[in-house]
């Protein structure tokens, strides 16, 4: 049976996995209450805020940042030839395919994911030199694993040490909530994942938010995975407040509370400056 992640490539679509798996436990009502009545509604707010932060950078003519998304697979061989073929050493940097959840999330927060349109059986991988050419200039590096960054960085320091993201200490792995939780809880918490991405791309301008999944590898400790009490799923998110846009007038402007993507149209019509939470 194909899982929902194989069929869905949007954040909301993957979040619907809660409903998909509820069918096997006769828990459809509970799933609808948790997702449709909670996560999905909150996702509307989170998406709106993400787009608003992206609009700030656009107005301020800040160049769109590049996001490198990868991790190192020691078993990533070229499966099109025998593993005994000379020169077919195992190991490589995984390259994401465009059009998947991380691509949509990155675009939504106003950045661009380095990804490939090339579909390769078993996935596309790069050796160190090619990977450095591909991603060394990216401002942000998401290392998509929660357990192997330290070992990989030690082994690949000569290559990674020249990356812009490493020099500016904007490298994040997925261990903020434990080594493996990103791959388990993210699908049911797409709102928290998108807020993490907003905080990372905004460079901390998104105040009053603590990342749930993404850990800065230079100054944050690996988190401890939480266990669902009694096996009951609970959202990782806090309350989401639609951010207010302060319009540029001499006295600081009047705050206009706007919801949904409509705030983009209003902001574009009058111009805006400072963002804050109401």
Structure description:
By secondary structure, the protein is of the alpha/beta class. The protein has two domains: 4-238, Rossmann fold, CATH 3.40.50; 241-278. It has twelve helices and eleven strands. Strands 4-1-6-7-8 form a five-stranded mixed beta sheet. It has a three-stranded antiparallel beta sheet with strand order 2-3-5. Helix 4 packs parallel to helix 11 (190-201). The chain is globular and about 50 Å long. The N and C termini lie far apart (45 Å). 33% of the residues are buried.
CATH class of the largest domain: Alpha Beta
Global shape? globular
CATH topology of the largest domain: Rossmann fold
- What structural class is derived from the secondary structure elements? alpha/beta
User: Strand fraction band?
Assistant: 5-15%
Low-confidence stretches: 245-278
The average pLDDT value, as a whole number, equals: 74
Q: Order of strands across the widest beta sheet?
A: 4-1-6-7-8
Name given to the CATH architecture of the largest domain: 3-Layer(aba) Sandwich
What is the terminal-to-terminal distance? 45 Å
